[in-house]
Write a structure and sequence with these properties.
Layout lengths: L2 E4 L3 E3 L5 E8 L6 E8 L5 E7 L5 E3 L7 E6 L4 E6 L8 E9 L5 E3 L3 E5 L2
Parallel strand pairs: 2-11
Antiparallel strand pairs: 1-3, 3-8, 4-5, 4-9, 5-6, 7-8, 9-10, 9-11
């Protein structure tokens, strides 16, 4: 059974930092490209950042220079370090795993991040 379990988000003040993690099980983690997406109320789910099996990264323009995605293949976990948070970063953040061989994807349950004073 495939599971992607995100860490708890939370309430952060503008300018603050938060690190999300996504622990996976039931997959061969090293064969999956990993990503973080987010969905704000009333909006579509958008890409935040991705990291390939070779650790190449890609970021949405809105988070470049503030967010960092990383992966630990030994722990089957992907991380999203979020710095200089802004109110517009408020959203439910979702972890995504994409199997490089077939393209099949899996999603985590989502975690709420709220940036507010």
């Amino acid at each position: 059974q495939v599971q992607l379990v995100e860490s708890a988000g939370g309430l952060v003040q503008p300018g603050g930092s938060l690190r999300l993690s996504c622990a996976t099980s039931g997959i061969i983690f090293s064969l999956y490209d990993m990503g973080w997406y987010r969905q704000a109320p009333g909006k579509q789910r958008d890409l935040v950042a991705t990291i390939t099996t070779g650790s190449s990264t890609n970021y949405a323009d809105s988070v470049k220079g503030r967010f960092t995605i990383s992966r630990d293949n030994a722990k089957n976990t992907v991380y999203l370090q979020m710095n200089s948070l802004k109110p517009e970063d408020t959203a439910v953040y979702y972890c995504n795993a994409r199997y490089t061989i077939t393209g099949r994807t899996y999603w985590g349950q989502g975690t709420q991040v709220t940036v507010s004073s």
